[in-house]
Amino acid sequence: MNTELKMAFGLSAVIGVFNLSSLLGWFNAYS
């Protein structure tokens, strides 16, 4: 696997998890 590809995949995974957790926190705050 390419190092660049692995880095891009890891970065998008981190961003996805961050977005998911912030969305979850926002949902909990308003429910």
TrEMBL record:
<protein>
    <submittedName>
        <fullName>Uncharacterized protein</fullName>
    </submittedName>
</protein>
<keyword id="KW-0812">Transmembrane</keyword>
<feature type="transmembrane region" description="Helical">
    <location>
        <begin position="7"/>
        <end position="27"/>
    </location>
</feature>
<keyword id="KW-0472">Membrane</keyword>
<keyword id="KW-1133">Transmembrane helix</keyword>
